[in-house]
Specification:
The protein is α+β, with helices and mostly antiparallel strands. Helix content is about 25%, strand content about 15%. The strands form two sheets. Strands 3-5-4 form a three-stranded antiparallel beta sheet, with no helix packed on it. It has a two-stranded antiparallel sheet with strand order 1-2. Strand 4 and strand 5 form a beta hairpin. It starts with about 30 loop residues before the first helix and ends with a strand. The model has no long low-confidence stretch (mean pLDDT about 75).
């Protein structure tokens, strides 16, 4: 059996010269075009553009000054702080997670897609089923 000989282009040969210069109006990555035709978004807004929480985002507040959080130091040691939250504020923090569930399959490992498909089949939710891989075999749904 004979070996096929495949011609390879020379690595030292220069590429052919273009016949005419490129058209500047045909540039796809023209930053001036994109900046003029799109609103300026922060990094967080670009990540959460379609999420409800982007609409409900609240400005940052100093919780200690607002009286919502109290800080005590265990034994007077400033390296061992203890935080106490207002009960109403704690309920507000917990509200988005009220209907959440942390899952861990014991005895074997399962992948994200397999678990998501299995949960959709078993639970048959009427809405969207969100699943988040927390690592160490744990998932949040």
């Amino acid at each position: 059996m004979s070996a096929l000989s495949v011609p390879f282009p020379s690595l030292t040969a220069a590429p052919p010269a273009p016949t005419k210069p490129p058209d500047p109006s045909s540039h796809i990555h023209d930053t001036e075009f994109f900046e003029a035709n799109s609103p300026r978004l922060s990094f967080l807004e670009s990540l959460m553009r379609d999420q409800e929480c982007a609409k409900k985002r609240q400005p940052s507040v100093d919780l200690v000054e607002a009286g919502v959080v109290q800080i005590d130091f265990v034994g007077g040691n400033r390296l061992h702080p203890s935080f106490e939250l207002d009960k109403e504020y704690y309920k507000q923090l917990c509200a988005p997670w009220r209907d959440s569930l942390i899952l861990k399959l014991l005895g074997r490992e399962i992948g994200y897609k397999a678990l998501h498909a299995h949960l959709l089949q078993i639970w048959q939710p009427k809405g969207k089923l969100d699943l988040l891989d927390l690592g160490a075999g744990c998932f949040l749904t």
